[in-house]
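Input:
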Amino acid sequence: MSIENFYILSAFLFCIGFAISATKKNAIVVLMGIELMLNAANINFVAASTFDKGIAGQYFALFVIVVAATEVAVALAIVIKLYKHFNTVDLDKINHLKG
Amino acid sequence: MIDILFYFFAGLAVISSATILLTKNVLYAACALVVTFLSVAALYVLAGAEFLAITQIMIYVGGIVVLLIFGVMLTNKLKGKALVTSSHNPVIGVLVAVILFAGLYYTMDAIDFATVQTATPANNINTLGIGLMTNYILPFEVAAIVLLLGLIGASTIASNKTLDKDK
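Output:
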């Protein structure tokens, strides 16, 4: 279990998350992809902190988790507001700003 | 032994995250997301970050995924049939992701990891707690403000009230 395995796994999860948020039409599944990308970044931080006596990477990962929790709460509020306005969460149909 | 566990949980994370990409059912995607987060928590334990693993389980699995499922529930008219979502430009999206992965892999291949020494501290949680109250006290307090702002902002945005000037 060397450090590069963690890095490769993190890169893979990041790319999967990117593919999800780039291709899916449902806004909530896009949010899932974004969560996956944040998690991949966290794996990188934790893996880097294993050769650091001060474990700075773990503090970073902790704050990333805090920001991810806030982000998903606000994003879901926006999605719910969008659903009330457009009656759909299909991102292809939400295509005009002032309606 | 640890190697076997690492490959097991890494494989689980890869398979379940690929499931999110491949499935059309939104709730299956949410369940696969739970599996991904749990296996990532196991990987944190293997990397010596026990506190983060518990945080991951509590916040991601216990909070974020539940919130996402609430979002699914509130933004669909449930009529007894499965919630499906289709993909937009799947070939190009996956192609870009594969190119991105190839680029990242190529770059990581160039790093010489043999020069880096692995030294996990003996008492992880102790170090983390002391650090949060000393060196990292400012980001810790800012995190509290960010959470409060997120709470107020989310409830304001999602509320039914309109602003006074709109009336």
